[in-house]
Amino acid sequence: MNFRLFSWSLLSFTVLSIVGPQVVAAQGWQMVFAQNVGDVEAIASDAGHIYAGTDNGVFVSADNGRTWVQKNNGLANLEIFSFTITPMGTVLAGTEGGGIFRSTDFGENWQAANAGLPDTSNIPCLTSDRFGNIFAGHSEQGVFYSSDDGQHWSQRNTGMGNESIFSLTITPSDSVYAGSGSGGAGSIPIIFASPDLGLHWDTSYGGLASGDEVFALASDSSGDVFAGTYKAKRLRLFADSTAWEDISPFASSSLDEVKSLACDGDVLYAGFFGSYVGRSYDRGSTWKLDTAGLTDPKIYSLTVTPQGYLFAGTFLAEVFRTTGPLGVGKGVPNSTLALWPEPFRSSALLSFALAKGGPVHVALYDALGRDVCEAFSRTLPEGPQRIAIDPELSAGVYTLVLTTPDGVYTRSCSTVR
Question: I need a labelling partner for 92 at 20 to 30 A (CA). Which of 3, 111, 172, 251 fits?
Answer without folding.
Answer: 172
